[in-house]
Amino acid sequence: MDNIKVSVILPVYNGEKYIKKCMESLISQTLKEIEIICVDDGSVDGTLEALKEYENLDNVTVITQENAGAGAARNKGMSYAKGEYLSFLDADDIFEKDMLEVAYNKAVEDKADMVVFNSDQYYEETQEYKKADWTLRYAKIPPYTPFKHRQMTDNVFKVFVGWAWDKLFLKEFVDRYALKFQEQRTSNDMFFVFMATVLSNRITVVPKDKVLVHQRRNNAVSLSNTREKSWQCFHEALKKLKQGLVEHGIYKEVEQDYTNYALHFSLWNLNTVSKTVYDDMLNKLKNEWFTEFGITGKQESYFYNKKEYNQYMKLISE
């Protein structure tokens, strides 16, 4: 297909339960000039067989790899992409049929490096849709588009969430900065998303009243189990982000935002792991990581969230 507007990159691991519904929602998108690149990440259920049913379509490519995680799968899919914009989706989420068309048209209108759109959460057990206003904090961005991170009025790492599925990225922009996902089990998209946020010259958003994707919330147990086994991934993500900011000469400008986000993300990880890894994580934070993230020795006035600062002070005094 010529003139591909969006390359959809879809990593799938043991997604048999949702993959057909996901693929049907993608092939029925109102934007027709898309390619769908499915990367089976070593599934051991019926995922690959289900994906192969769509290989006869001109715009669907199915790639396989040994299980290496979503970050590696996205990178592999990206190497095949030919579209003007890149979309990185999760196979268990639910997409509005005009999602790609609305996001792409806004991208073109603003000649954007990066487009962010609104989402909510779908709770499978109760079949409820719930607002998730914290995923795109409209009050912290300018009343105009496009804009840069410098026009945001809050911590630049908290205006958007560091996941990729509610965004489009200009492929030429991604290639120019050689942006890649970290190939680790969890927190593998933070570096890509936040580096794109601070490097973009033109960021745009879809209007607030338009919800384009519904994040399915039903896999908290499997995700927490993954984090238990790979609990150091959040540290690797924050370390990689700091390294990228330094390499691009941005770190000094956003240092306070980075340090505050590092404290926030460290505490979130600590507060949501089981006792089996809690003590190991806390020891690492107190003895190494708080210092590495620039948190140690800062005055209370340096921190945006006093509740997080107070928890940090309590932890280091124990």
Strands ordered across the widest β-sheet: 3-2-1-4-9-6-10
- CATH top level class name of the largest domain: Alpha Beta
Fourth-level CATH superfamily of the largest domain? Spore Coat Polysaccharide Biosynthesis Protein SpsA, Chain A
Shape: globular
Compute the number of helices: 11
Poorly predicted residue ranges: 220-224
State the secondary-structure class: alpha/beta
- The overall pLDDT average reads 95
CATH architecture of the largest domain: Alpha-Beta Complex
Helix content: 25-40%
In CATH, the topology of the largest domain is named: Spore Coat Polysaccharide Biosynthesis Protein SpsA, Chain A
**Extended strand count:** 11
Span of the ends, CA to CA = 61 Å
Percent strand: 15-25%
H/E series: EHEHEHEEHEEEEHHEEHHHHH
Structural domain count: 2
Radius of gyration (CA) equals 20 Å
Pfam family, one: Glycos_transf_2
Organism: Eubacterium segne
Protein name: Glycosyltransferase family 2 protein
Domain Glycosyltransferase 2-like: 7-151
